[in-house]
């Protein structure tokens, strides 16, 4: 657990929550300046800061409630649902929207696998997957924060999505009936 040994779990959680809060403040700022008038970006960053604040380690530190990996997976599902509702209402999206959906989906999958490993398989011995989980979730969270701030396709996810869909579309037209 290199990242948690170096930073501590509480610090990583606080850093990510703070990052989403700063992304939200940044989007409020650019919205009111009139630079970006897309409210989906503003709503998306608001949903992310509320979601990550609700599952922050600060609450477990205060013994507010004890969260498990299943709780984090459920929070990710709920966050995806609320993002989808915003998309359905506004009918427009921003470049960061796909990054949020993919990031939350990967985080949810990793959390479910950790839940399976620890609570179902009763594994208490740290192993390589636990390090992958810690590094993966942290890297994905930071990527989602950057996506909310820059609102660009900086990793090429949109290009990959378009190529994938066009590939499957072209294969559907070549099928013999």
How would you describe what is shown here?
With 177 residues, the protein is an all-alpha fold. The protein is 79% helix and 0% strand. It has eight helices and no strands. Helix 2 runs parallel beside helix 7 (128-150), helix 3 (39-54) runs antiparallel to helix 5 (69-90) and helix 5 (69-90) runs antiparallel to helix 6 (95-120). The longest helix has 26 residues, at 95-120. The mean pLDDT is 84.
Radius of gyration from CA coordinates = 18 Å
The coarse overall form would be: globular
What is the count of helical runs? 8
Distance between the termini: 54 Å
Task: Please render the helix and strand layout as text.
Blueprint: H1 2-7, H2 9-33, H3 39-54, H4 57-61, H5 69-90, H6 95-120, H7 128-150, H8 157-173
Helix pairs in contact: 2-3, 2-7, 3-5, 5-6, 6-7
Quick tags:
177 residues, mainly alpha, 79% helix, globular, single chain, 8 helices
Brief summary:
The model has no long low-confidence stretch (mean pLDDT 84). The protein has helices spanning 2-7, 9-33, 39-54, 57-61, 69-90, 95-120, 128-150, 157-173.
